Amino acid sequence: MADTRTIKVEALARVEGEGSLSVKIRDGQVKELRFGIFEPPRFFEAFLKGRDFREVPDITARICGICPIAYMMGAAQAMEDILGLRVTRPIRDLRRLVYCGEWIESHALHVYMLHAPDFLGLADALELAAVDRSLVEKALRLKKIGNDILEVVGGGRAIHPVNLRVGGFYKLPSRKALRALEDDLEWAVETSVATVALVGGFEFPDIQQDYNFMALRHPDEYAIHEGRLVTSQGLDIPVSAFLDHVEEEHVPWSNALHGYAKNGSAHHVGPLARYNLNYDKLSDTARAAAAAAGLGPVVRNPFQSIVVRAVELVQACEDALALVRGYEEPDVAFIETAIRAGEGHGCTEAPRGICYHRYRIDKGGAVLDARIVPPTAQNQKVMELDLAKVVQANLEEADETIKWRAEQAIRNYDPCISCATHFLKLEMERG
Amino acid sequence: MPERKKPKLAVFKFSSCDGCQLTLLDCEDELLALVGEVRISYFLEATRKVEKGPYDVSLVEGSITTPHDIKAIREVRRMSKTLVSIGACATAGGIQALRNFGSVKEFIRKVYAHPEYIDTLTTSTAVSDHVSVDFELRGCPINKYQLLEVLNATLNGRRPNIPRHSQCMECKANGVVCRMVAAGEPCLGPVTQAGCGTLCPGVNRACYGCFGPMETPNTASLAAALAAQGRSRDEIQRLFRSFNANSDAFRKEGDSHG
């Protein structure tokens, strides 16, 4: 009889959603590993059917309270694609600005409050505050600046903002209101650079993975809300071809469909993917901060995602500052056109990676069909591959250490299981 | 001197987007002061430290959508001295309650390749449909100042000061131009509880009802006014069937426009 050892994590904390983890080990080898998601299904794609196309961004926002902009903008873009509507340059810039706000808010939350405690051996940011209160105060101020952008541009609230619509915005923010963010954003750029230095000094387990990265790429900027889809295997396609290359699979242990490339390989989306594919588009400040933290153009250690997220904080704060400084109130807040039937696509870089939308609407504007592929769904397979490697590398360690390392390996992805988690169970069988 | 025993705060999640519990972390200016007054005993989005109940105050986000949820919410109630449900999911079933009006089997087929893997109830319902609730804080999402007021009041043993009047009153008080009268838009403001901070009318759009029905709403009268604007029965139904579709008042009004 093989000797069996079972380890359980009753709850995975500091992620958004509900999941489980089971590991089977035979003869010192990880035989089977499943990262399960038990977040109950909410059926967005089903109940969107029959809704008016103009209602969709507000409804899809409710998929995720942490990254509503990703869902609102992807939906709005897809509808604009159907209608043949191109937003004006100032509207496009305002969209990038509000998206920078979401990146800053989400990345600051993850880097300091959800991820950093792992590297410091602490349970949470509150324990961190007990050790270094001013650091947590800085983190909260940084996060708040992201939320301030969301409030000013998004119409008064950061979670499920009300000012975004198909064609643009309901109301333009005033120049004065945006300019009022300038001083804070200058501080935020400096603080982000310091953040890169701080988290760059953490100790990282030495794990290198050969990922197939996928991200948006734009010729003129570090892509956030538009571009073509590229991969490290050389794929370069328009957003509309996403489903020609990505498949979704329904596995018994997860209520989130597993996304993977049709050529059979798991792909990786999120900060690491963006960094590796768009390193040349980072600002000088962001690249210099990365270099000072020892990061070159290629980063394949999932644990260093925290440093890359901090580098992206620099980028987002700098971009936001430039957009705020350059803002002049345009003539129109949104553009409209006649309704027509058709199919359209939208894709943006949510803080956790590409978030894809496809809709079909009829000639009256009612939704016939909806398909949404969130980033965490696409990362499930690579998360499992990472977990296998992390568990394998730590087999000699005590149960508690393996448990924590496994949790960290998941938190590297900033998973959003709501887009997911209240209970993550780690069940481990050793034989 | 021994340290005063801090009340234990727990935050639980059911089916939801996480936005309402995030609201607590979005209280950036107040968070450190708040955690000075309470002991965070269970809040998985923020900490891996888990303390056993009973808890003095439990905030519950999300709606009840699985057989497991029903068991879990009873356990939460059993462990909680005061239970506050937060947000449209927990107080009305949320947007996912739209399943209550369709065939869930068909919904599952539309989204999942293997319906046999999915274990779900045919309805999404409010926490108060399953256990007694001490206070319901409305909103999709909740307003952070209202959340702080509810926590403050609960910790100090008084009733939260949360208005039950309509959004219309707020627009009038703030001198915001009426979307319904001036712009001819379909607005839920006359029947929706105030509390968001007059956000939508503030950006030139009609209220879409995030905060659910006000106290004693006259939805029939609003529906008649919407019909007089030339709105179709389908459009009127969709207006009532969104984030608070399964609240009593909105459900009944929506059902009567099928």
Automatic annotation (TrEMBL), chain A:
Protein name: Ni/Fe hydrogenase subunit alpha
Keyword Kinase: no
A family per Pfam: NiFeSe_Hases
Cited Gene3D superfamilies: Cytochrome-c3 Hydrogenase, chain B (1.10.645.10)
SUPFAM superfamilies per record: HydB/Nqo4-like
Presence of the UniProt keyword Iron in the record: yes
UniProt binding sites for Mg(2+): E45, I372, H422
Coiled-coil regions listed in the entry: none
Record-stated family: Belongs to the [NiFe]/[NiFeSe] hydrogenase large subunit family.
Binding of Ni(2+), residues: C64, C67, C416
Annotated residues for binding of Fe cation: C67, C419
Cofactor(s) listed: Ni(2+); Fe cation
GO molecular-function terms, A-Z: ferredoxin hydrogenase activity; nickel cation binding
Organism in which the protein naturally occurs: Magnetospirillum aberrantis SpK
Keyword set, alphabetical order: Iron, Magnesium, Metal-binding, Nickel, Oxidoreductase
Automatic annotation (TrEMBL), chain B:
Keyword Nucleus set for record: no
SUPFAM superfamilies on file: HydA/Nqo6-like
Domain NADH:ubiquinone oxidoreductase-like 20kDa subunit: 17-153
InterPro entries: Hydrogenase_assoc-protein, NADH_UbQ_OxRdtase-like_20kDa, NiFe_Hase_small_N_sf
The keyword Transmembrane is assigned to this record: no
Cofactor(s) listed: [3Fe-4S] cluster
Gene3D superfamilies according to UniProt: NADH:ubiquinone oxidoreductase-like, 20kDa subunit
One Pfam family linked to the record: Oxidored_q6
One term of GO molecular function: metal ion binding
Keywords: 3Fe-4S, Cell membrane, Iron, Iron-sulfur, Membrane, Metal-binding, Oxidoreductase
This protein's name: Oxidoreductase
UniProt organism field: Magnetospirillum aberrantis SpK
